[in-house]
Amino acid sequence: MFDIGFLPVRIWDILDILIVGYLLFQLYKLLRGSIAFNIFIGVLLLYVVWWLVEQLGMDLLKAVLNQFVNLGVIILVIIFQPEIRRFLLFLGNNTLRQRSNVLDRILNRSNLEGSEQRDRQVRAIKAAVMRMGRQHVGALIVFTKNVNLEGIVSGGVLMDAAITEPLIESIFNKESPLHDGAVVMGGGKIMMASCILPVSENPNLPKSAGLRHRAGVGVSEKASVAAFIVSEETGRVSFAYDGQLERYLSEQRLTELLEEHYV
Ligand SMILES: Nc1ncnc2c1ncn2[C@@H]1O[C@H](COP(=O)(O)OP(=O)(O)OP(=O)(O)O)[C@@H](O)[C@H]1O
């Protein structure tokens, strides 16, 4: 296509760089905030040291490091088994999501009836969240439709129920056997309750963010999902997306975020 100095650049080279860049970014997103990220940096450092030792001809150290490097791929697969699994799931899910978007467009599913239903569901979730906040009932709600959360969410009780305000409040009521853990909803249904989410290990989260908030952030680090958290202690509502925690939402901000992220 064109030359940079003596280097001919083809369109495939640019595509190559873009794909590798995109995959590395997704890998970073998967590892970010978790202990696996530190391990990854450790592995990179080890590799740099090994390369330096080889260049400098330090034979004894090289022999020791060689033991690690020779087993490198196997060690990496064992250490990063959950991340590799999630990465492959991410690739598969994205393909499925594209197919479902195309289908949605062909079937024109975003018709008037659908949008009225959506408005009703968003209103129900908002009312439930606000009321739970006022009553200091702790809650954790995750929105997802296309993302297969297998491997990220564990436990959980299958619900497949309509989204209504009384049902959401009943689930999180302290007397309910389902109140512990997160509710996963999407596609107009409450899909699961009592789910255990991955807890974020991000050291930059505020000290006052306990396990419920860290679980909301954790799931948003691992998958493209939004999570709403009602604090039992303060009654305040927070929002987690893309590994970031937005705390103390006003009613207006809650409405905006629900509208934007409800799936
Ligand atoms: N990994 C997890 N996945 C889903 N829910 C969790 C997880 N860990 C804790 N929880 C929920 O959070 C509750 C404990 O919350 P904790 O008090 O530690 O968090 P917090 O962020 O300080 O929230 P709060 O402000 O409501 O106290 C548990 O009873 C459980 O329902």
Automatic annotation (TrEMBL):
<dbReference type="Pfam" id="PF19293">
    <property type="entry name" value="CdaA_N"/>
</dbReference>
<feature type="transmembrane region" description="Helical">
    <location>
        <begin position="6"/>
        <end position="28"/>
    </location>
</feature>
<dbReference type="GO" id="GO:0106408">
    <property type="term" value="F:diadenylate cyclase activity"/>
</dbReference>
<protein>
    <recommendedName>
        <fullName>Diadenylate cyclase</fullName>
        <ecNumber>2.7.7.85</ecNumber>
    </recommendedName>
</protein>
<dbReference type="InterPro" id="IPR003390">
    <property type="entry name" value="DNA_integrity_scan_DisA_N"/>
</dbReference>
<dbReference type="GO" id="GO:0005524">
    <property type="term" value="F:ATP binding"/>
</dbReference>
<dbReference type="Pfam" id="PF02457">
    <property type="entry name" value="DAC"/>
</dbReference>
<comment type="subunit">
    <text>Probably a homodimer.</text>
</comment>
<keyword id="KW-0067">ATP-binding</keyword>
<keyword id="KW-1003">Cell membrane</keyword>
<dbReference type="InterPro" id="IPR045585">
    <property type="entry name" value="CdaA_N"/>
</dbReference>
<dbReference type="GO" id="GO:0004016">
    <property type="term" value="F:adenylate cyclase activity"/>
</dbReference>
<keyword id="KW-1133">Transmembrane helix</keyword>
<keyword id="KW-0547">Nucleotide-binding</keyword>
<dbReference type="InterPro" id="IPR014046">
    <property type="entry name" value="C-di-AMP_synthase"/>
</dbReference>
<dbReference type="InterPro" id="IPR050338">
    <property type="entry name" value="DisA"/>
</dbReference>
<feature type="domain" description="DAC">
    <location>
        <begin position="81"/>
        <end position="251"/>
    </location>
</feature>
<keyword id="KW-0548">Nucleotidyltransferase</keyword>
<feature type="transmembrane region" description="Helical">
    <location>
        <begin position="59"/>
        <end position="80"/>
    </location>
</feature>
<keyword id="KW-0808">Transferase</keyword>
<dbReference type="InterPro" id="IPR034701">
    <property type="entry name" value="CdaA"/>
</dbReference>
<keyword id="KW-0812">Transmembrane</keyword>
<dbReference type="GO" id="GO:0006171">
    <property type="term" value="P:cAMP biosynthetic process"/>
</dbReference>
<feature type="transmembrane region" description="Helical">
    <location>
        <begin position="35"/>
        <end position="53"/>
    </location>
</feature>
<comment type="similarity">
    <text>Belongs to the adenylate cyclase family. DacA/CdaA subfamily.</text>
</comment>
<dbReference type="InterPro" id="IPR036888">
    <property type="entry name" value="DNA_integrity_DisA_N_sf"/>
</dbReference>
<keyword id="KW-0472">Membrane</keyword>
<comment type="function">
    <text>Catalyzes the condensation of 2 ATP molecules into cyclic di-AMP (c-di-AMP), a second messenger used to regulate differing processes in different bacteria.</text>
</comment>
